[in-house]
Design goal:
By secondary structure, the protein is of the alpha+beta class. It has a domain of about 120 residues: tRNA(His) guanylyltransferase (Thg1) (Alpha-Beta Plaits), CATH 3.30.70. The protein is built from eleven helices and six strands. This is tRNA(His) guanylyltransferase.
């Protein structure tokens, strides 16, 4: 009996790592079959097929964050440019994105209708987009705020919504851009009353209570000589990151067989090379600050629907 076990003992002495591997493999199989039932508690969050996917991220507690980091009021171009830079990283990391729209402390990323990213699992898509954006917001901070140390890391929440029709998608983006205009007009008047008009925050709020868009424009122009329509487009319209396929030149040289340069005797001949050019397609991300509510943008960029 002992003799029959000698080969096994010898094998285990000479190949202990294999013995351990076999043992662990068996343990995994047993554990896998025994505990796999817990996967049944996972929710099925697969998004509807053939629908536009929009992931919107929002800064959490950014009112306090902007105060702690001395953001310029009503708009800090550095902060908006930082948001754009972080969003561009997301756009490049996910080829399935078609365009993105950002304003204030939020950004919306539009994914192609036919994307099968992460099998269209909402949780996977949202967490990957949100974490990548947040990480790059922190990573790129020194580039846009070189004189302001980051006091604490900001955080962002995220959600994913599906839109079944092209018009639904347009209406969503129009909603966000209209929100940008409404908020920016209010903030522009509010901070003019505080910074130039000498009102307290509470008095400025009371002054603007119940006012309409025309009233706010009148206050800006009559009291502070500010024409709202001349404010930077980035503040009034928000930022659009749009992917387009563009042709870029390819420069190089190619041998010309029919033209040969004579070499010294014994050196053979050498084909001349002359420059040649061509083009290839490449996807670029363009930063725009234009109106998306009207038809012109969509006529000029109809490739969005089939990108």
């Amino acid at each position: 009996m002992m003799r029959s076990n000698l080969p096994c003992l010898s094998f285990s002495r000479h190949y202990p790592f294999l013995t351990k591997a076999f043992s662990l493999s068996g343990a995994r199989r047993m554990a896998h079959s025994k505990f796999e039932y817990v996967r049944g508690f996972e929710s099925k969050d697969t998004l509807l097929p053939n629908t536009w996917l929009v992931v919107r991220i929002d800064g959490r507690g950014f009112h306090s964050f902007s105060d702690r980091h001395d953001f310029v009021k009503p708009n800090d171009a550095r902060s908006l440019d930082l948001m754009n830079a972080a969003a561009k990283v997301v756009m490049k990391a996910f080829p399935e994105t078609v365009l993105a729209y950002g304003q204030s402390d939020e950004y919306s990323f539009v994914f192609r209708r036919n994307t099968n990213l992460y099998s269209r699992r909402a949780s996977k898509i949202v967490t990957n987009v949100t974490s990548l954006f947040a990480a790059n917001y922190v990573y790129l901070w020194p580039e846009f705020f070189p004189d302001t140390k980051l006091k604490y890391a900001p955080s962002f929440d995220g959600r994913c919504v599906t839109y079944p029709t092209d018009q639904n998608l347009r209406d969503y983006l129009s909603w966000r851009q209209a929100d940008c205009h409404i908020n920016n007009l209010y903030n522009t008047v509010f901070w003019a009353l505080v910074q130039e008009g000498g009102l307290s925050n509470q008095k400025a709020q009371e002054r603007l209570k119940g006012t309409l868009s025309g009233d706010k424009n009148e206050i800006l122009f009559s009291q502070f000589n500010i024409n709202y329509n001349e404010e930077p487009q980035q503040f009034r319209k928000g930022s659009i990151l749009l992917k387009k396929k563009v042709s870029v030149p390819i420069e190089g040289s190619a041998p010309v067989a029919e033209e040969e340069e004579k070499q010294p005797e014994g050196g053979g001949s050498k084909a001349k090379r002359k420059p040649h050019s061509g083009t290839r397609e490449r996807v670029q991300v363009f930063d725009l600050n234009v109106d998306m509510i009207g038809d012109e943008f969509w006529r000029e960029n109809s490739h969005i629907y089939t990108f």
